[in-house]
Structures
1.
Amino acid sequence: MVFLANEGASSSSSTCRWKYDVFLSFRGEDTRRGFTTYLYNALEQKGINTFMDDKLPRGEEISAELLKTIEESMILVIVFSKNYAESKWCLNELVKIVECSENDQMVLLRPIFYNVEPREVRNQLGNFGIALANHEKEFKDNMGKMPRWREALSKAASVSGSHYEEGRTTYKSEYDFIRGIVKEISSATFNWRPLYDTEYLVGIDSRVKDIKSLLNIKSNEICILGIHGLPGVGKTTIANVVYSIIAHQFEGSCFLEKVREKSINCGVIQLQEKLLSKILQDNYLKVDSEFEGTNLIKERICCKKVLLVLDDVDNSEQIKKLLGKCDWFASGSIVIITTRDKHVLTTLPKGHLIYKVKELCPCEARDLFNMHAFHTNEPKEDYSKLAELIISYAKGLPLALKVMGSDLCEKSICEWRSAFEMYKNIQHERIQEILKISFIGLNKKEKHIFLDIACFFKGFNKNYVVKILDACDLYPDFGIERLIDKCLITVEHGTLWMHDLLQQMGREIVQEESEGLENRSRIWCYEDANKLLTRNKGSDKIRGIMWCEPEPIIVSLKASAFKKMENLKFLIVKNVQNSKKLKYLSNELRWFEWSGYNFSLPSKFCPQKLVGLEVSNGCIRFAKLFKQGCHYKYLKSIVLERCQSITRLPDLCAPNLERLDISYCENLIEIHDSIGLLDKLECWILSHCTKLQILPSTLKLNKRFILGNCPRLEKFPNVHPEMKCLGGFTVIDSNIKEWPLSLRYLTEGIIRLQIWECENLGKFLDSTNKLQLLEEIDTPILNRFNILPEYFGNPLLQCHGEILIDLDFCMKNDFFPALRFITIDCSNIVSIPECIFRLSRLEEIYIRTCKELREIQNPRLPRSIRHVEIIQCPSLLPQSSSRLLNQFGKILGILPNRVSEGARSDMLMDLFDDSESESESVSETEDYYILLPGTEIPKSLKFNHQSFGNSISFKVGCKFPKLAVCVAFRSTEAHIDGRHFYVHVSFNGCKQCFRYISTNESYEELWLFSKSLGQLKKPNLSEQNQVEVEVTCKIQNRNVSGHPFELENHTGFIKWLGVNVECICCPQKSDITYLLLPSDRNGCGSSSVLNDTSYGLKGFLGDLNVSLSAPNNSELLALLPCPNMDHEVSNIVNDLRLLKGIHNDGCDLSLSLNDSNERESEPPLFPDLTNGFDFGFAQPNLELGLGVSSGFHLDSSSLAHANVYDDSDFYMGSSSMAHDCVNDDSDINMGPPPKKERTS
């Protein structure tokens, strides 16, 4: 069946339900007593809900009730008969039918040509032509309806339908004709009935919209999309909704449900037969083998544009047996595959798309739960707190919200409390049944990894866990990726996470291993661990124990408490102090952590596969552990924080050690020489060891060394000649007097240097200075230099004067030529020296909480700068902020042309290019922003769209290199914990959170940032693009219980919003001879903030488009006409009285009113109205005026400067334009005008 639909129209809600399946439109006099009545009865007999308007009173205008009925019908059937067009009622009805089919992609239009040729309807011939001619005579004084009627007839008749001509048809009889129509409609209504529960769908529309944008249905390309996500997250439901919305646009469609389950229970052949029968409409087609079925699908369907959905696929073989190699589809076909296992999708052809379904947000989760539990969006008053606890427990998983909500519906508050306690300890069986499917599909080692993470390692660093599990021979590099593919775990910022319900499911699997604790593989509940160990139970089946008491306790475990646990691999004990020494610990341990253990370790304890040892806050004695002959090649991390029993750190016999923390070991005096030569050591933390005097004689580190608050340490070790680079070096409150010259061996530099409270900074810098003199290649010597506050009260740096001197000294002596980041935090400095800005590679500078800072000396920001942030500096003079802002605006290229002429950033101007270029890759990552104190609206910068609210919308062309946004924030009166501002940018409805920043609530601040087009989600750009910019604010505060919560959309904090978009898509040619009407104003840069009237001026310059925009409600100021003006333009200029509040951009040359008392280096936003008008824009500029009493001014950097004075001299600056562009008797002078003649 073919339908009429406008692909550009938006579809109706994905969750809508039709009141009628079919609406019949017909000419009653022709077919009511025959064909249409027979058709109606046949449809009703098939259970197809059909509307036939035979009982409504007829007239010239159809009723609102009938219009609504058309809108509520899924299939609109028009019975075109010979006298159909004679009825004005029918024609009006037809207009509405065509309108609905164009505006709603889910509506099907079905024409039937009954004893009439389709071409007669389409071209209005024969009876249709005569009828319309008669209507034209009747409506000769009101012809508005005629075009709509003709257009509706043409569109409806252009849709392929059914044709019946008595005596000249292929059908045996009218009965057979009707039966064929009913069969098609029945099939269509069956295919279109939702395959999902249409009630209580929440959060569907946004996800469906995302998927439709990925599918790009308008294109004629083959699209294969994989949808994956957590079990129970709604993959099938979303795929069903998408299928129901778009299926009618294909020649054939099929939704194969539960592929995994049916492949096992029914076999693949049954699935193949179902696919073929649905697409080919042949219920009798049989398949004898899987191989035959695969070939038959390819051969019979390859010529059709089809939509196929394979739901719940868990094996790539299932895809292969149903679709082969997926390389045979006809153009425009779409295949959607839902799966829990992302790895299944890797076998799809190159270019396939993947969409991950995310859990519901809190608001969506609340709505879904309430609808199932209360059948309304709002909970009952007494239930609201319990409802919130259950919603929080579900963590946005739709399956859990629906199951628990339905279970608790109509239950008492007492039952709710009991059920919630049960849910926390025993997962609902229907939830676990779904979640457990993914676990069952894992192999043995993958199951071990999943259960270890669920019981012990959730929230741990992934790399660390990989090392622990690798020592258990579980091959975690592969296994963890498999768990990620199956959506059983996630990795966020290097940390392992899993959904709480999946964690609960995993732990319940362990609990089901045995009723007895000693026979379970893992113990994580502190009550269970206490019971197991204090009762001296245990077995070799126990793999790991986590015993973390909520409050410190003292226990008396037997010396043999761990004797039976020979296979124990993980032992984590916190807040438990044992009063006796242990005689046994498993040598199979991979991770041993016991905070507060105060005895020596067992004499036979030698865990050679140990990966992590953490025994902080105790008096452990482990000299025997690191006895001669024992080598711990797997050992990666040792934490001995606050171990007061250690006086000398021995050879650790761990050549692959990566992390060593010996902080707060107050009795530590000496560290063995071998520690300094651990070249795999990535992080060595050595702080607050107040008696430490002897470090290793030589260091051979390569990553990070933190040395702080060791007052007796006076000499720094030598640097090994092979130690070329140090990733991070932090020195805090140091008394080191001797810095070795061997620091010069760091030929590849120190990547990050932090120095706090150091008296001998100059000696250290002097040592490293020689290093730079020896440098021969362009490699970073120092990338980051943080100057931080005095936390420890060093009296020598009370006023931070020395830090300021050191800063000036360092920069002037070029200690850090490769410096890219500077942070000055909580300092008492008064002035930032000018030399800081001479660093040619400086990218980011952060100055925070410097209460005394008043001045930033003559800033000259380098072109490399990206981020400038100055916050909580209340004493900073406005002039310093203004200079920085101007410098930053110059780099961004958003100063008016007469200031930044020739200085616009080439880097930004070239960011947009249709071709694949090197600049395109740069544009994907470039990010610029500046945050300064104060909210004075920047008059020196050019923002062609402005608002005193929190949002603005406008239109731009298809090419622009960047978008710059400036926001002024007010301070808050009441104290809050924090406020966070988000900028949302929407291009043609494609919305994204474009930028985020946190600001201090106590200060007024100004934020300017710019991003390139390459950083946007790629919208379908056209000649005219709608842009919306909105700033939202979330403030964080605390409720009565002291817990933080977030409030959204506090727009009152936003004082002003400005946007600069510099279009580079101006029309190439313009022949200026006519006047644009106000209704024509829809060019690049038109903004909804201002109500504009536009006037086009033509006749002055051959290749120049000029549009003057003025608000309709403005008072106009007279502009005297110039002698060279066209008559029309002269009349328009005479009518202008006052122009104000106008925006501008590079395509639509516009006006903005500025102040006049500004020096040229900082041009005003508002010009002097007594001397004419000042227009700043990006590309062409033109001066037109009469003396200084009136006129207007357009600046130019690339075309010409032209002044028209009282004596009609037309003056042009340097230009490439033809000299004959002005054809009159006025004098044309090439070159710059005399200064005395220039207008301001």
2.
Amino acid sequence: MTLQLYKAAVINCKFIELSTESTLVCLSRVVELAQLVMQWEGDYAIYTKIIEIASLPGTVGRVGGEGLRGICRTVFNRKYPAMVNILEDLTSLLSPSSETTLPVSMVLSLCNVCLEHMDRNNADPAFEKVLGGDFCKWCLWHSQTEDLRVLSEILRAVFNLFFVSSSYLRVQLEVFLQSVHLRLLHPPPSPSNSEDFEFYEKRTDMALDSLLTFCYEPGVLRGLYVNYDCDLTAGNLFEDVVTNLCDKAEAGNEKAQWGVLAVIDGIGLGMQNTPTISVSPPLPSSTTSISPPMTPLPPQPVARTSSSGSICVDGESLNILTEMKRHKSKLLSVTSEFNNGNRNWVPYAVERGVIQTENAGDVGRFLFEQGGVDKTKLGEYLSKGPAEKYPFNAAVLEHYSACFDFSKLTFDESLRVYLRKFRMPGEAQCIDRIMEAFSQRLHECYTRGGGGEVGRREKEGEPEITTGEGEAPPTPVRIREEIPQNPFRNSDAAFILSFSTIMLNTDLHNENMKEEKRMKVEEFVRNNRGINDGQDLPEEFLINLYNSIKEQEIQLHEGDIKKKGIEGAVGDWGELVADGGGWKEGEGVEKDMFTTIAAPTLSALGHILATTQSPQLLLACLSTFSTYCSLSSAVGMHEEFNDALASMMREGRRFVERVRGKCDQPWRGEPVWLDGWEGDNATDFRGLLALKTSLHLTSIHLPSIRLSFLLLLDLLYLLRSLGCLGMLGEVEDFEGMERSCYAEMVEGRRREHEVSMREGQDATGWLGGMVKQVLWGGYDYGSEQADDEESLEDSDNSEPSISTREAIRKVFEVSGLDSALLAPTSNPFITRTLLSHRSIRDKAELVSWMWEDQAVICLEIATRGVKGGGWEEWRDEILAILEQTDMPYLVERGIVNVLKTFIHLYDDASADVKKDLLNLVNAIGLIKTSVFRHVSNRVAAGISIVLRTCKFVDASEYAVVLKLCDRAAEFRAGRGFVAAALDAVVDEDKDQLVGTGGWRSVVATCCKLSGGDYEGDLSYRERAQKMVADLWSHAVGTGMKLDFGIAMSVCQCLDTPELLQRAIGSVGGEQMTIDVWVRLFREVFLTREFGEDGQEDDRMIWSNMLGRVVLVVVFVYGRDKEGGGEDLKGIVKGVIKYLGDNARNTRAAEVAEASVQIANNMGNVFQFPEFQGEGGIGEWGVGCLTEEGFAVVQEGMEVRGGEGGGREGAGEGGEGGEGGAARCVPLPPPPLSSQLSI
């Protein structure tokens, strides 16, 4: 009851006197009472009463206005039925014809209160009708105002509409953004006075503020992209908004700069989400296609219902949207070629896949379907003639006209639809050709399906009219239940009436014609008598046609409704909004969004980085740069990534160059507040942050590096000159190697250069606090200044003052770039760039030490990446380096890198790469002696690792590597490494060496070490002999065949009787051919001479060896009477003679006895049955012994030699005297196995 009383009190309140204070208090109480009532009952009558109060002037009106805001907030919060009525009423107050005294700004403010308290995506048809109709229309109308408060409320309303009703306001929102927001960003170029300039600047700022609210809502940006940029019938709204923001940002507008950063950051955030797309139900379309599209379009997203009841699309929708965007880009490119008058646009369209063939039918259908075609150009193209001269254009016009279906349209509707698609040319002959094509198509459609005359209006609705993409249907429309017969007897009648109708349209709607002179209906009917093949057209038909033209003008020269400006859009609002469609909420499209706006945003980011004077904006810009680089790297846009990185590198390089001369001066640790930077401090602050960001991004996105790597190299050279490269500044060497003289020379020159650069430079102390913030603490540009100051003070107390050099070194260290560059990379571009940037093949005649130092850096980094690509370039560059004579430091590093690469790649390399590596090793051995002498230790150390780690399968591989060992051993610095390397490989890989034949090369080198061939150095003699003995023994043990070369080398190396006895005595007779044995006996065994003093033991050992070896050979080749032949007899005879000389000429009794014993053993062997018989070596051998003076007992008989025999007989019961013969006592023959081995 009380509520009803309150309600009645408010509704029945009357306003008599407004000037007194008591009246104001009373009205205030009425407003409060109204708000209280509305809390319980949302009665529309209460609202209307408060509207009356708000319409009153002065303070009373303001009180009512505040009450209205509370009422609107309550009604829409509580979802009272009065919501629609209130919104309709407020919309009516926005009409220019409204007589309300309420300010437009207040009405718009109330509308915004309603919108902000409505449910998001409210799909109530009642709201759709209000918001999509008059509300948007009158907001667009008022956007032309000079009242900034009104404009502010309109911009606020547009943003609210995106969240409340975007599902059914797709076209309206596009018009708002194009006609209001983007228009306001471009004020007139030359305002008449300063007040106008200030006014336009304020409007621009307001538009930017509104766009910023969109930029900070990633969902809104996605919606713009999905619903406009990916829609074939809409403009590229997202791209246009961002491009305009970028233009303003580059012009120095800070708000636009923040907007650009927000767009990129929003896209980066969205890339982390799972790609899905939810689509609102599409609105009924006002147009239908009369035939399939001429070119295959991408499939549309297929809707499905989720478990929650919302409508979304399947997993293919993201790809579908992407394909739609690509297809749209193709269509726009072809359309642009047509609009620009390119005569070859048809072949271009076929090449792009937009038109299937170059025939007139496909071209005509494309021009009919593509909404972006310039209407003036289209009219000129279609009407080009005559047909005899331009038959293709005439055929296109015919096929183009055939795309229209006029069978269900009246004559004037058909003419409107036809002429709306293009701009009518001005030449009479062109008009004739167009109207002739129209009349023929019209008569064909009427003949086939009837139509033409206006029938009875039995029901309301919209006709199905195909007008092409983006075209609205004509109004008014007429729908018939019954369609009469075709009124035209032939197409000529339709042609004449078409001309007559156009003349009527001009007469009735010409603003310069007086009313009394305009054509009357009777005149129109009279003028068209007898045109229908000699007969009259139905009078009712002509009267209805006259009235239709009088009611609505045929627009002969209209353009795109969306681009006609605000007044044109408002005037054609019904047609405009009829072209609506469903709103799609897109996710997962950020990749395509980024590729669309990557170029303009990068340009804007670079401008912000280089020019901003705001530390907060600078920090945010660098953060966005990081996001941009991550996005471009992720989507494979390497060019954009490198351009972004290059922008930061240039700033970082300028900073390092500025402070290079101050690098040893201490920082005083003075904090630099973000709001206090200026001058050089601000410039250096920008440079240090850019340096840190660029190095960090390079380290984490190294595979994406392309052209920016050249800038990086220049920056690295500069940092190296300061000694700030960390591990990258220290070249990698073999373990245990000290710095070479060449490296010391370059380092000394570098230090001298730094000293010269620092002379006369003063210190700067401001950087201390800044670096502590940037490097150790980091900036948080979103925090309060007081917090920043407190943290900086704490850091000043905890961190000591450091030098500028240390700060830059710290920047490089925390970036992790040194580790990234030194790690194996899969980016062949980096390798090739490194090799070409400081290529020895392209150098001038004279280069500086600094150039050489930089070339070393390039070579070191390139070597790490050669496995990932660029092998041929690396190989050729290394070969060129090894041929140099004036850059020894670079040559040294080339050698080390060749050997390191050999170690890492050889085993898994292809045959071609292995061949290249062996050629490089061979090239090292050809280096000039003056250089090689100082690097021989590194060569030997590398070869040592090569021999121990690489698995060679061929003797030629060992030959190449050991040839380099041989060259390194020529110099004392490398000789020890060579000996150690050979020792290690012999100890660990005998099987590999012997199996591949590589042991022969090892033996050859060891022979030189043993013989003192290297500068007469015999310090490695014993080690070399041991290695040879081990290898020979291992080879003999495998039973392999041995040639004279290797046997001779072993004999030369093992030149002591004891060593040679062990080596040769272990060889099986069959392991060497008789020819090899013969040569060894003739050239080595039988030529050895011993003195009489102190060499008796050696003589005796040598004699034993000869006796044993010759018997081994005899047992192998003496059984076959043809096996040994004269060669075998020759060495047997030589040994017997050698023994005879020993027995006769030596003064040492033990040597003589040993010789006689050896001869005795030989005699025993010769008596074996297998050596007997005609031509056998046994009888011949006994004869040789006898001739040499040895006595041989055969079957109990003593055989003595001739005169001049031995001085003393030997054997049991023997007697000797002067000139007597030695006696050989027969011994039991040993087993065959013991005869063949030691």
3.
Amino acid sequence: MSVPIPQPPTIPFLGNVLAIDKELPLGSFGLLAKQYGEIYQLNLLGRIVYFVNSAELVRELSDDKKFQKIVPGSLNEVRSLAGDGLFTAHADEPNWAIAHRLLMPAFGTANIRNMWDDMKDICSQLILKWSRFGPDYVISPTDDFTRLTLDTIALCSMNYRFNSFYSETLPPFCEAMTDFLKECNARANRPSIVQALMTSTTAKWEADRKLMIDVSSEIVKHRRHHPIEKKDLLNTMLYGRDPKTGQGLDDDAITKNVSGDSSSHVLSGHETTSGLLSFATYHLLKNPECLIRLRKEVDDVTQGNPITLEHLAKMPYLNAVLREAIRLNPTAAVRAVVALEDCVLAGRYSVKKGQGFAINNHEAHHDHKVWGEDADEFKPERMLDGKFEAMPPESWQPFGFGMRACIGRPFAWQEAQLVLASIIQTFDLCFNNPGYTLEIKQALTLKPKDFYIRATLRSDAAHLLSTPSSSLLAPKAAGQPAKAQVEAEADDGTPKPKMYVLYGSNTGTSESFAQRIASDASSHGFKATIGTMDQSTGRVFTDGPVVIITASFEGDPADNAAQAVQWLEQGASDAEFNGLKYAVFGCGNRDWVRTYQRIPTLVDEVLEKKGGTRLLPRGEGDAAGSSFFEDFDAWEAEMWSVLTKEYNTVSKKVEETLTVETTKSGTTRASELRQPDTRLGTVTQNRVLTKPSASGIKRHLEFALPEGVSFRAGDYLAILPVNPPELVKRAIAHFGLSPEEEVTLSSSSPSTLPLNRPINIQSLMSGYVELSQPASTKDLQVLSTLTDDAATKSTLEGLLGDYKASVLTKRISVLDILEAHKDIKVSLSTFLRLLPPMRIRQYSISSSPLADPQHATLTVSIVEGAPVPGHRDVPFLGVASNYLARLQPGERVQLMVKPSGTQFHPPSDLSTPILMFCAGSGLAPMRGFIQERAKQKESGREVGPMYLFFGCRSPEEDYLYSEDDLAEWVKNGVVDVRPAFSRASEKSEGCKYVQDRIWHDREDVMKAYNEGARFYVCGSRKVATGVQKVCIDMLKEAEKLDDEEAHRIWEKVEQERGASDIFE
């Protein structure tokens, strides 16, 4: 019996066109595949196309006898340039067959090997460029790989030099080709009436086409008039004869195959290869253990000698890296075929002759049934030791299939191997923005978007450059040197010992600690340089102490420390750190008991094991505890004591290294944009979720995401907030300033403040410092030195003596203390130095991209605290939550999507039961999970059971979404909600808390557990601890286990089937 092929809802005349993102159609195709499954149909302006997404169906369509390649809309537009060239010809056009038979031998193994010297020529130009520009230069690898592959295909196939590396801009031919291909993709998805109105766009498209044809015609004419003895593709096309028909190609056909092959040869051999190299570089940087393994293979094989063709055959891991990169991101992700006869596909779907199919190789390459549950992860090992050869037939198709597959694959592969091996042999690479997560840009092929790196010669001297840990603060411009931080100079002209301050930080805390040390270094006699841990990869500093501040994130290093940690473990030799003296402070959270302080401990122990000298015991701060900042203050004081003795320096009070100069006192406010508009999202909705009687407020916010930004259910939205206006006014008033007064800051130490340019006080206080951060013990000590009043000194000493209860718990800030004690004379520069920099806040996204891929929602608790008599006469306001609470629709917000842990996403197998435990705004990610399955069920797919255990106060206060979304999903059988009302337990089966409801419903929980359910927890540490305890108790009761065995089993369940997100 035939199964209907699902289709999204249509719009009259347009069909499903509006369901496709015009900038990134592949993203829309992927979301539709996630919602509708292995096959769905779209009505594209009246044309019905079946989209195939599973490896099983792709395998069936890979039969040249039943299905034939067709030229889809976007490639059909390219025919205006390439005509019946190799990649744009229809099946019945004779020139394709002639060109195919002529050129196939030219791409044979022997001929490709003969192109080695030309390939190396161009490769050396890229290596030379990166070497000469140095480690401060921000590289766009996609641009440089585009230059490289364009120049390579032109030199090898036509003996023509574009000389792309001798110009700051891309050659006109390349720019024209890129714009032409992008417009071809857009034209294919526009209604003809719309296209007819876009006269200027059409004129540009025609001009690009003409430029490429003119250049190609000149190349052909030049070769006709100046023939050379070289067996390249151009000579083959000019003088070769088809062995079957005896025919050759006329100049018009040759020009089309040159211009078309500069968008077909060049599209396959150039676009495909540049995309492959870009994606491979990204995945290696994101997976430093793979980078280290590849570097070792290259070094072992080459032994420091120039790479030869023979070397490549001895590099299986290099081959595996490229295969895996192009599996995850096939640059030509979709191909089209047509049914040659009526058939039943996979025994389920009836297909009529002439039906067109779009084969989504991107989805098929991520098929969990073929590639496993880790199909979305970069694992080159799956391509080694015969595993690749053992894959089901046609599971890997990045170069197409059959007679119409890419004939330039051997060329592209040899070039990619040479270039990647040469880069790895020569450079240490790092992200320019350590937090970068892959975004895609799409023309006819795919490439990474906004992807920038830096490259340092592996033999270079040590060089550090400070890069913010948050990409919201990172520079974006490619092709420009990043601005170095200014190092402190000795006041008396005498040299100071160097100090290297390294940090690994995702949220900014470790970075702020590191910058505080770097700022204070001058007063202790050191000349400090600050940078990320990744920027130190492969380098050993022996001319001064190395201070490392780093964190663990569920046992993993920070984004900007991953490469360094992998190098420490796997790349560094046993005596690598002889002569290095170091100190480590670790930031962690005891809520993650198994992985608490894992990375700081590992770094500390490996450095010592491999020759380093530990200057003082590793410091440790628990972000979940009450003495986090106090512990750092104590460790920092001990560190300076040790360092001044070790290096014979003198700690002394120095003049302020931060100076503030008033440059303009005006009556108008300057607009100060701190970040590019490309990362600005727009508020589209902000509403209160709680009832008027609720004791706390929770809100639902929706944001239109920046163009090209995507997310998954379970990801975070990171927000860069500003301080509440009331707080900013208090700070400005305390210093007797006008909000519109402008100042210029300068500093001889590293700083996150805006230096050496005018900025108004309003912008400075609003966006650059944390005004409400509780004062640290060090802050209290500094303030005590700035007053002569005995009563004030006594008060400050009392706060120090009872720091946790008097300062931390009550959230008493430096500003609070200054307002309460006017006798403390603090300059604006000292005040700014005491405050930590503004940091991003992460919130779990509470929606699914299947509901709306361009919008993401948050579910947020608004944080407010009571006044504290004697210290703060006004309520405490949480910075980020109050910033969000006051946003109005239409306002722009600086934000970014940050991926959650690999486990904190809905399972790929829709039949897997899901158990969700949460309280309050911890409902956020669970709402996204439920919404995702609701959309999948709505599309006709079978989904497994979902159980939501949700804790709140009462149905009359804060039972979030209970009257709309949750009610609808319960009604539709998507989720079973089990509430626990702490102030109305009689309405929740007598259960006050989540753990009580779990125990009450333990039979259902154990049934889901035995069926392979996945467990998700989101909430406070108290919620997580309660859930863990009750689950262990259930195991003890159900399985008759003792306490130790139940703990062991539950720990394994958490590792294999569980994921948690704990917040305070």
